[in-house]
Amino acid sequence: MVCTRKTKTLVSTCVILSGMTNIICLLYVGWVTNYIASVYVRGQEPAPDKKLEEDKGDTLKIIERLDHLENVIKQHIQEAPAKPEEAEAEPFTDSSLFAHWGQELSPEGRRMALKQFQYYGYNAYLSDRLPLDRPLPDLRPSGCRNLSFPDSLPEVSIVFIFVNEALSVLLRSIHSAMERTPQHLLKEIILVDDNSSNEELKEKLTEYVDKVNSQKPGFIKVVRHSKQEGLIRSRVSGWRAATAPVVALFDAHVEFNVGWAEPVLTRIKENRKRIISPSFDNIKYDNFEIEEYPLAAQGFDWELWCRYLNPPKAWWKLENSTAPIRSPALIGCFIVDRQYFQEIGLLDEGMEVYGGENVELGIRVWQCGGSVEVLPCSRIAHIERAHKPYTEDLTAHVRRNALRVAEVWMDEFKSHVYMAWNIPQEDSGIDIGDISARKALRKQLQCKTFRWYLVSVYPEMRMYSDIIAYGVLQNSLKTDLCLDQGPDTENVPIMYICHGMTPQNVYYTSSQQIHVGVLSPTIDDDDNRCLVDVNSRPRLIECSYAKAKRMKLHWQFSQGGPIQNRKSKRCLELQENSDLEFGYQLVLQKCSGQHWSITNVLRSLAS
What we know:
By secondary structure, this protein is an alpha+beta fold. Helix content is 28%, strand content 24%.
């Protein structure tokens, strides 16, 4: 998690009016805090600082007095002649779209490209100018080219899910599937339109489908939703429309590489209880170049966000880069035996919109007798958008869906999901819907425990059975401030306005350690950071390092009491400092009676 902090900013905007002898400068004051920045990913809005509100009031009075003058300025700008092209290009220089592309475009071209980029999250302007059948580099391990496959393989239905996709991107996905899947294996393509408002996805797409179907009747089917159902239910819609023995469920911004299908269909033919993911490469959102990604398994963290993992040790020992990679979960796109998908329970349609369904499917398949694999010899290039412009913040949906997974499949380890999201385990206030049918499915399929899954399938995942309290940590001296990990580039904890997001997550363990920030998900990730007394200063140090160096990382703490280092006997306290943004800093000093409280207590906090 990247934590970017922005302080008060004074922006001076000078407007030069054509035909006027004076330069009129308008001053605006903006207040921006990093915890609502897009890199923060989470979405709560904190209470405003009183001093900033007072400053804001003064500034608004100034702006009010300038209202009339500003209207005059706007009128002059509208009447002024167009500026030279060099001046017009200036507003576009800040966009990431033009960091590695587009320098040769005219100002009008840049304007068009930027408008489309803001709408789609990728360079649709460039996509519209690329051929649908463009060549891709063959990024398979060299041994893949020497593999042979059975002559008799099952047919596949390829399903593309989309909402307001750029037409050229969707058509390139379809075209690459048709060109790079053997004709005798590709039975049909199914397009699931989740109620797009984009007009070109209606008439123009219909024209394309009709043209293809005039040569191959019924080859492309279009399923259109009358309302937006979200990615999860859209995938189920695509599965229901499919008729081939195998169904491939994909996003509609991908390009298939050569030889992708045969390895997948071979593995499913050998064992229909395998769910397969291809290996993914990246289509860069700005210049559409193909970026090779290293081979990886697919897993998740304790918030159930999907993530790439190093292949397991057993795979490396094979010394065979073409071998299937055992994977704990799925990133999203996958191929499955159509009938087995129904037997295993499809996707959880009680989930909302997006997020967690791929993790839930991976957990369910493993616990209920199936398996998940990533195939190095099957490669698909996928656009990773710069942003998702046409949808709301997905965090609330992912959190709700994660709690459904936790309650149905994770047994005693469901606490880890609540802790990672900083949610009370009792009376969370989040309605996860009816899960009785999913619990009945688990019982019907006679599935194994989540502990078995962690030990047998995902041993890299860290377990946190020693956490006895978690949440935000507040001091009685200033209750609107919370302990915060501070900027990632430093190891100094700070006090910051309470927002309850990841940088303010605090975990107190039975061994009297205080972890601050994200719960490290796997043993391959950086360790958790512990609060440590370093030369009488509070610091955040990797817990394993602090323990190995016998540093002062153990703290006595009881709810509503002081936080005292067991070895140095110094207390963690607040000290006024007018130079800091919120007026207080963290210090270690002789205990003066300051009290701390943490949001959620699981077991007694004995001092």
